Amino acid sequence: MDLFSFSECANQTHSLRALFELLVGCATKEGFSEVAYGALNFVEPLRLAEYPPPTVAVKWPPDWCDRYFKRKYHTIDPVVRRTPMHSRPFLWDQLADHYQLQPDERRVLEEAREAGLKHGMSVPLFGPLGRISVVSFASAFDDADPQNRIGHLNALACLFHTAYSEIARPCNDSSCERKVALSKREISCMRWVAEGKSSWEIGKILEISENTVNFHVKNAMRKLGATSRIQAVAIAIRLNVL
Q1: Which residue from 179, 191, 201 is spatially nearest to 229, judged by alpha carbons?
Q2: Distance from the Cα of residue 80 to its chain's centroid
Q3: What is the pLDDT of residues 201-221, one digit of tens each?
Q4: Is the pLDDT assigned to residue 124 strictly greater than 90?
């Protein structure tokens, strides 16, 4: 399922469980069937009741799920601890290369791998008032390569997070519906951003300078209230701007 199809299905979804199952289904097709969504520094107004905070929704092997929550591994999980330090998606396999992990942190990663969560990656998601959430993906296969799927999984996580926010905070007042007007050039640039093109590549395609591309993309991000390009794409798709 491409990003536009995912967004279209998410638009028709009005429950967290159905939305999360949609995300899991798409991630599974990418080879990453183990998925978790959590809120790291605040309490989400909507969560699946069977999972205690900070997890909002999770699809993990049952034995690992039980062990993780009973032993309160979220307090020592390096993914939970390190997510606020990242502005972009990161691979679990590289955490030890960038940080001096404590023995208990290494133990959580090793036990997760033994339980079937292999070659994981996490997507930090930043909201208003300093809120931080995270979507994590892992594979059950030894030969999975998250680096090759990181762009698509990142986009899926952002689309999911945006859709979840609307379900969790419904507003019946029509004045609450966001109206965002992008220029034709901003839309053109953002469509190519959605295809994974760099500013240099977009400049060549549209026959404009790289600086001009960056100018239009930054304007689009500002109008959409996004802090990253991929978040801007996710919001634009959700609002039917693209």
Answers
A1: 191
A2: 14
A3: 999 999 999 999 999 999 999
A4: yes
User: Tokens 């949609």 correspond to what residue?
Assistant: 22
Question: At a CB cut-off of 8 Å and minimum separation 6, what does 234 contact?
Answer: 7, 155, 158, 159, 161, 162, 226
d(CA 32, CA 23): 11
E-strand ranges in 70-222 read 90-91, 118-126, 132-139
Q: For the chain, how many helices (H) and strands (E)? A: 11, 5
Inter-residue contact 165 to 37 (CB < 8 Å) = no
* Tokens read off for 146: 């998250």
CB–CB of 223/231 below 8 Å?
Answer: no
Amino acid letter for position 132: I
Q: Residue 34's closest CA among 1, 63, 77, 5? A: 63
163: phi then psi, degrees, rounded to nearest 5: -65, -40
1-18 confidence digits (pLDDT tens)? 677 788 888 878 889 999
pTM as predicted:
0.75
